[in-house]
Design a protein that fits this description.
The protein is α+β, with helices and mostly antiparallel strands and 233 residues long. The protein has five helices and 13 strands. The longest helix has 11 residues.
C-alpha cells in the first residue's frame, strides 16, 4: 500500500517528512520521495528502494523549506523506478502531487495531454494530475480552483496532497481512499494514516469523500465536492 505524508508551517519540514515516511514503512512500498519548495522552484528527491536510500539522497541534495509532501509507493502503473516514484510534477516543475488510488481514465487523459504538448516522463496514472492542474493554473485559476477542476475530470479513486511553488499552502483531497489531517501548534499535517504524524500531534481531522482541504500553518479549511465550506472537527 502507498503512504502519504505532508507538513506545512515548520522549518524542519524535511526531517518531519522523512520521519513520517519512516512511520509509514509498515504499509509496504518499493520507492519513496519528497518535494519541497525552496522559494524559487521545487526541489524533488525521489528514488526506488527503501526510505533509508531516500534519506541518503536527501542528505546529498539538502532541500530546505517550511512546506513539503512525501510518499511511499507500491507499484500499480509502472515498475519500481526513480521516474515512477512520487511526487510527480508538471512540465514547469511548479506543481507537485502525491497520490494513492487508481485513476481509471488516465490513459485517455495522458493521450490528450501529450497531444497538447505536455511531456510526461513516467508510466504512472498519477502524473496526469499535476499536468491537468498546470493547464488550469495557466488559464488563471488559483491552485485550489485548479485542483477542484482537475478532480472533476478524474475517474476512479484518490487520496492526494499537492503543493505549488510560490504558494504557502498544501491542498488535499480524497475520494475512495483514506486521508486525514493533523493539527499541531503552528503547523499542519496531511497523511494517509495517523502514525505519520502522531509523534507531533494527536489532534486529527478525518476527511470524507469529496472533501478538499487547504492547510496553511496551523489553520485548515475544508470544502465539499460542491465547494461549500463544511465542518470537520
Amino acid at each position: 500500500m502507498c503512504g502519504i505524508t505532508a507538513c506545512v508551517g515548520h522549518d524542519r519540514t524535511v526531517s518531519t517528512l522523512l520521519s513520517g515516511l519512516d512511520n509509514l514503512e509498515y504499509r509496504g512500498y518499493d520507492s519513496a520521495g519528497i518535494a519541497v519548495p525552496n522559494g524559487t522552484s521545487l526541489e524533488v528527491v525521489k528514488r526506488s528502494g527503501e526510505v533509508a536510500d531516500l534519506v541518503e539522497s536527501v542528505r546529498r541534495a539538502s532541500p530546505h523549506g517550511s512546506i513539503g509532501i512525501g510518499h511511499t509507493r507500491w507499484s500499480t502503473h509502472g515498475a519500481p523506478s526513480d521516474e515512477n516514484a512520487h511526487p510527480h510534477t508538471d512540465c514547469t516543475e511548479t506543481v507537485a502531487v502525491v497520490h494513492n488510488g487508481i485513476i481509471e481514465n488516465y490513459a485517455t487523459l495522458r493521450d490528450r495531454l501529450s497531444a497538447a504538448g505536455h511531456e510526461l516522463r513516467s508510466e504512472t496514472d498519477t502524473e496526469v494530475i499535476p499536468h491537468l492542474v498546470e493547464e488550469h493554473v495557466d488559464a488563471g485559476c488559483s491552485p485550489e480552483v485548479a485542483l477542484r477542476r482537475t478532480l472533476s475530470s478524474l475517474e476512479g479513486s484518490y487520496a492526494l496532497a499537492m503543493l505549488v511553488s510560490g504558494d504557502d499552502s498544501i491542498y488535499a483531497a480524497r475520494r475512495g481512499s483514506p486521508l486525514l489531517l493533523g493539527l499541531g501548534d503552528g503547523r499542519s499535517f496531511v497523511a494517509s494514516d495517523a502514525p505519520a504524524f502522531l509523534e507531533f500531534t494527536d489532534r486529527v481531522v478525518f476527511l470524507r469523500d469529496g472533501d478538499v482541504a487547504t492547510l496553511s500553518g496551523g489553520d485548515y479549511r475544508v470544502t465539499d465536492s460542491g465547494g461549500e465550506p463544511v465542518d470537520r472537527p
